[in-house]
C-alpha cells in the first residue's frame, strides 16, 4: 500500500511536492495509511491539479475529460442506419411522361394506406413497434415518410431510394417492402387502362415479375421487366444494401467536439484565475 501511496504523491503539482513531498512520505511511513488514505490522496491530487496555474496541465485534464464525455455521451443517442437501393425506370413513353408516371407511382407508395400496411405487416415485431404503443398511427406514418428519401439521378431512368431506421435489419426489410410496393404500383391499371394493353403483354409482365422475384431470392441477376404499351416498369438495379455502420451518431465528431469544449473551458478557467492573481483586492475562491 505504501508504494501505491508514493505513486499517488507523484500526481501532485511539482511545487507542492518540492515543499511537502518528503514530509508527506515520512508521515505515510509512520501511519501506514490504508486504502481510504490512498483514495483521499488521489482526490486531493486531482483537485490540486485542477487548481494549478499551469495551463498545459489544466488544458490536458479538461480536454481529455471533454473527449471522454463526448464519446460516452454518443452512446446515449439512438443510432440510425440507412439502407439504399437503386431502381431503373423502363418505359417507351417520352421523358416527361415517364417522370409523371413515376411521380404518380411515388404518390401511391407514400400514401397513408400504403405505408400503414407496411408498418402493420408484422404487428408486435414490425416497424415502429415501440412507437405504436404510445403514438397515433398518423404520427408514425409521417415519421416514416420523413425517413424515406427518393432521389432522381441525372439519368432520368435511374432512381435512388433510401430508408433510415434505428435497426439495421429492419431498415433493409422495410426498404425491400417499399421497393416491392413501387413495382406493384407501377403495374397498377391506374397508369395504363387495361383496355389499351394487350392481354398477352399483361400476362407476360406478371410472369417476368414473378421470375424476377425468384431470381432475387436465388441471388441471380434479376430479369428486367418490360413495360406494357407506354406504361412504366420498374427494375431493381441494386437491391437494398445492408448497412454495416450507423450514419448517426458520429462518435469521432462528438468526441472531438467534447475535446474542443474541454480545451475552451480550460482556457477560460486559466484566464479567470490569472486575472484574479493580478488583482489581489478581489475575494479569493479558496477557503481561508
Q: Enumerate how many helices there are, as a single number.
A: 10
Main sheet: strands, sense, barrel: 4 strands, antiparallel
Distance between the termini: 33 Å
Q: Determine the mean pLDDT.
A: 78
Roughly how much helix do the residues carry, as a percent range?
55-70%
Task: Please outline what is shown here.
This protein has 288 residues and is α+β, with helices and mostly antiparallel strands. 56% of the residues lie in helices and 10% in strands.
Secondary structure elements and pairings:
Layout: H1 2-9, H2 14-31, H3 35-50, H4 55-74, E1 81-90, H5 95-109, H6 112-119, H7 137-147, E2 148-152, E3 158-165, H8 168-186, H9 199-217, E4 233-238, H10 251-278
Antiparallel strand pairs: 1-3, 1-4, 2-3
Write a concise keyword list for the protein shown above.
288 residues; alpha+beta; 4 strands; 56% helix; disordered C terminus
Description of the structure:
Helix content is 56%, strand content 10%. The chain has 288 residues and is of the alpha+beta class. The chain folds into three domains: 1-49; 53-77 and 249-288; 81-238, no CATH class. The protein has a four-stranded antiparallel sheet. A hairpin with a 5-residue loop joins strand 2 and strand 3 (158-165). The longest helix is centred in the last third of the chain and has 28 residues, at 251-278. Mean pLDDT is 78; it is low at 190-198, 226-230 and 284-288.
Amino acid at each position: 500500500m505504501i508504494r501505491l501511496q508514493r505513486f499517488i504523491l507523484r500526481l501532485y503539482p511539482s511545487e507542492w511536492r518540492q515543499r511537502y513531498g518528503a514530509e508527506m512520505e515520512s508521515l505515510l511511513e509512520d501511519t501506514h495509511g490504508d486504502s481510504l488514505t490512498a483514495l483521499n490522496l488521489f482526490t486531493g491530487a486531482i483537485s490540486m491539479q485542477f487548481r494549478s496555474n499551469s495551463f498545459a496541465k489544466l488544458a490536458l485534464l479538461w480536454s481529455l475529460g471533454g473527449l471522454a464525455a463526448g464519446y460516452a455521451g454518443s452512446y446515449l443517442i439512438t443510432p440510425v442506419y440507412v439502407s439504399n437501393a437503386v431502381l431503373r425506370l423502363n418505359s417507351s413513353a417520352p421523358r416527361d411522361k415517364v417522370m409523371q408516371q413515376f411521380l404518380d407511382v411515388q404518390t401511391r407508395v407514400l400514401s397513408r394506406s400504403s405505408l400503414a400496411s407496411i408498418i402493420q405487416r408484422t404487428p408486435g415485431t414490425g416497424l415502429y413497434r415501440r412507437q405504436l404503443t404510445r403514438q397515433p398511427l398518423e404520427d408514425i406514418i409521417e415519421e416514416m415518410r420523413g425517413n424515406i428519401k427518393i432521389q432522381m439521378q441525372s439519368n432520368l431512368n435511374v432512381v435512388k431510394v433510401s430508408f433510415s431506421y434505428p435497426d439495421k435489419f429492419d431498415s433493409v426489410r422495410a426498404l425491400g417492402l417499399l421497393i416491392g410496393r413501387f413495382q406493384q404500383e407501377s403495374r397498377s391499371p391506374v397508369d395504363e387502362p387495361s383496355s389499351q394493353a394487350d392481354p398477352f403483354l399483361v400476362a407476360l409482365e406478371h410472369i417476368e415479375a414473378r421470375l424476377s422475384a425468384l431470381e432475387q431470392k436465388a441471388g441471380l441477376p434479376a430479369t428486367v421487366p418490360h413495360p406494357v404499351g407506354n406504361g412504366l416498369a420498374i427494375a431493381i438495379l441494386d437491391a437494398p444494401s445492408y448497412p454495416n455502420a450507423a450514419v448517426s451518431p458520429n462518435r469521432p465528431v462528438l468526441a472531438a467536439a467534447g475535446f474542443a469544449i474541454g480545451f475552451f473551458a480550460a482556457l477560460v478557467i486559466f484566464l479567470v484565475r490569472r486575472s484574479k492573481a493580478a488583482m489581489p483586492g478581489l475575494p479569493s475562491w479558496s477557503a481561508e
